[in-house]
Amino acid sequence: MSNPILLAPGPVQLHPEVQKILSQPMIHHRTPEFDQILARVLKNLKYLFQTKNHVFMHTSTGSGGMESALVNTLNPGDQVLAIVSGKFGERWAEMAEVFGAKVQRLNVEWGKSVDPQEVEKALKQNSEIRLVLCQACETSTATSHDIRTLGKIISKSNALFLVDGITATGAYDIPMDEWHIDVLIAGSQKAVMLPTGLSLIAFSEKAWKISETAKTPRYYFDLRKELKSNKNGETFVSSPVPLIRALDYVLTRIQEITLEKHFKQLRRRADFTREIAHEMNLKLFSSSPSDSVTALVLPAGLNGVQFREELEKKYAVTVMGGQDQLKGKIIRIGHMGYILDDHMVETMHRLALCLKDFGVSIDPEKIKVKSSDWLKANQV
Amino acid sequence: MSNPILLAPGPVQLHPEVQKILSQPMIHHRTPEFDQILARVLKNLKYLFQTKNHVFMHTSTGSGGMESALVNTLNPGDQVLAIVSGKFGERWAEMAEVFGAKVQRLNVEWGKSVDPQEVEKALKQNSEIRLVLCQACETSTATSHDIRTLGKIISKSNALFLVDGITATGAYDIPMDEWHIDVLIAGSQKAVMLPTGLSLIAFSEKAWKISETAKTPRYYFDLRKELKSNKNGETFVSSPVPLIRALDYVLTRIQEITLEKHFKQLRRRADFTREIAHEMNLKLFSSSPSDSVTALVLPAGLNGVQFREELEKKYAVTVMGGQDQLKGKIIRIGHMGYILDDHMVETMHRLALCLKDFGVSIDPEKIKVKSSDWLKANQV
């Protein structure tokens, strides 16, 4: 097998133009040239987030964005409702506890989406809840939550709705303002199609008002400082120039394509994966599958850890396995980033070859033809 | 004027090989290929820091590293002695206050280095001081402090010695262990010669013991979590793959050259700049000039802000101006990063041309010849 393929739920394959931009000679972040780029990026991020409010950038991974969301809204002792349906839900709940929140966990079976009525009930039972935390897509289970309905419910309460959209924002439709999201986070190495290193975050007016006086100590992630600098056309600390230059390209490109069509392209990849998985007798793990990543249950008795390693070593395909309780049981195939039809056909073909190696009865060539045919028949 | 030159005290010009590495196709950070790179980088960072202890990486700017140093050692209410000799000293003091420290500022005139006896006196007068904060090089004034002597003094007290080495570590000799430094920070876009996006930080055994129980809430910058992951061959959160791949190259290269020779190369650039500045009648701003960046006082009456802008616009040379109280009064020329002799000659030539444009009596061609001759006569 020849060319390596990376279809993980982040980091993702880079557009060739992005690779080129990343290798450009360095420029300083306090120059007229960079000022123009920064101004354009800050403007175009609003389109990506579907908000009229300011979108901020941190030099951090997505987890830094999750921390920023908390430290900019939380007062020590605040009551927080955390929807925990996987590894990242658990991380956010733990993080809130570290910063002094009293966290009530709403545990959801892995692979299922939260029942909005459960959230409504929890909010009614405890009017002291100040923040509700939820993943738009819980990456560890490839499950999307019903953010729209949750937004409606939470907007009627006193709580703020904080949404980790790291594997969702820019991958499928989450109109921040329209859906009453108070804080929305994105990560560069996911639907934003860049390397790891930038987290993006926006606040509703309601959330911003609270952030102005929230008492959790913060400095690196203090968005009050960042806003002041952004208003002067700068970032508060050094700007990661190559990433922001590449972000400029990605945002301009998405605007040209339009979000609507961009989302359709991702949906097509998700549909394709589900369809061909069905051909291969692989079941979907999630009952509410996300358009950004698909989790497939491996055949019973198959050693999933070995399988994923073999797929990588022998077939040069990197997809992710399961984490924690799902270790060895599922594989997760990402739909974000620079993905050509060839990548998808090849991935399914090699997946079938590898399944065959592991004793599964399957015809890889048939899978390859089916894959190719499906993509030709389903253009966006 | 043709090719642009960037001689700022970070971000710096990139080695062509680094540019190439940054544009490589993405790989996942949980792959055997990346595991090997990470292991090598974590090992080689010890050489850069001149420590036997573990060196950590954060996906953040240098300011994130400064925050990490604090939140991993500080208990709310702790007394902290902050040496403030410029903008970054002030930033660190302010940051410590945000996280609940009682900060005593030891203010030093900008451009001067701190008198170690003043630090000794302060520690004697207040045995409750838990941390001493100092820049190795205060970037805003291009001034280096006597870290070796300070380390000796502070190691005899109960306090930890926290050193911001962001424009120093890897630029000149600061042997962490030998000089009794408890926490040392570096930044990727400075002497590490990469784009902005990584901060590096190491702890002495004494500091690490304190960090294990320090009570400041922390998650993103929690090094206890990071150590646990590093011991498993991973980073705690996503790894910025291109930066770490490029760091691998830079560290390997510095090891090949040896730190000793690498430091001599930077010292040569600093010596050159001071020598030619003398030829141009430009005085050094600092009485304790750093080898990583040189600040030159602009002629009285010359509009420094306009001058720097003209140098950039007409002559394509980016150097930095002064900040805060030094705005318009100095220019700062960096010595870190990928700098060829041609870059240095050209910078001095264009600087002279620009000075002439602003009415200074100077012979740019003579400066060019002098520059070239000096570099030929002073090889490393």
Multimeric status of the protein: homodimer
- Write the element-wise H/E pattern of chain A from the N-terminal end onward: EHHEHEHEHEEEHEEEHHHHEEHEEEHH
Rg of Cα set of chain A: 21 Å
Instruction: Identify low-pLDDT runs of chain A.
Output: none
Beta strand count of chain A? 15
Structural class category of chain A = alpha/beta
Sheet bearing the most strands of chain A, described? 7 strands, mixed
Helix content of chain A: 40-55%
What is the count of helical runs of chain A? 13
**Strand sequence of the main sheet of chain A, in spatial order?**
2-10-9-8-5-3-4
Largest interface: A-B, 57 and 57 residues
Mean pLDDT over the full residue set of chain A: 97
Global shape of chain A: globular
Strand content of chain A: 15-25%
> Distance between the terminal alpha carbons of chain A, to the nearest Å?
29 Å
Q: What can you see in these coordinates?
A:
In chain A, the strands form 4 sheets. The first copy, chain A, has a 7-stranded mixed sheet with strand order 2-10-9-8-5-3-4, with helices on both faces. A 4-stranded antiparallel sheet of chain A has the order 11-12-15-14, with helices on one face. In chain A, helix 1 packs antiparallel against helix 9. In chain A, a hairpin with an 8-residue loop joins strand 11 and strand 12. Chain A is 43% helix and 16% strand. At the A-B interface, helix 1, helix 3, helix 4 and helix 9 of A face helix 1, helix 3, helix 4 and helix 9 of B.
